Here is the input.
Amino acid sequence: MRPDDKMTNPDHYDNIVCTEIPDPTKYPEMHQLVVQHMMHGPCGHLRPSSPCMQGEPKIYRFRYPREFNDKTSQAENSYQLYRRRNIGRDVNVRGNALYNRWVVPYNPKLLMKFNCHINVEACSSITSMKYLFKSIYKGHDKQVMHIDPDERQNVINEIKRFQDARYVSPPEAMWQIFSFALSQIQPYVMALQIHFLNKQMVRFRDDDIITYIVARESGKRTMLTAFFDRNKEDKSARKHVYKSFPKHYTWNESARRWN
Here is the structure.
């Protein structure tokens, strides 16, 4: 996260992400690992039955083979177009000659260290950041099972026909049996409340009486109103803006004031 560690130009991308087949003479071990782990497919007309071919007519899901590029550039959809030079080097994968257009982006150091498929992408915008988080927050692995207890019945019960099952692996099962924590935030993060005058959020139940709600909430301080109250009574607090206030004060939830 330091400024000098951020990728700001194509040279920085090329130092971290590679999409070319290494020279087998200079780097024989790296060349073998790239061929074994980082070559996509083949798919398309070379192999129409590839899992990445979807729909009717069949289309390439991951947009392979990619176009040749002499240098790395930024694409319109916020993903980089990595350097894939047409150097005439090819490898044999499943009986087909594949070029740099079929190489999945990788990092040489990670590939040499772990000896497995590791797709490395340079995320430099909010749009491409979704690539990092969609797998983390998509939930548990699931599968859909089709159950036909009696195929002779003509009546189709759509509710019973499909059952959504959750797969729990042995490590996860043991983790939950021992009641270990499933998630944590370190350090603890609390969002600062922002609202207009007398426009703060009010929580109530459907059966609450409106007069009681107004009386209960009228004198209740929010983080924002308590911030202004603290500035009235504490001159030293006035040198801190609201967003940096938690660096110098702590929020007391029960007393609803900054200490």
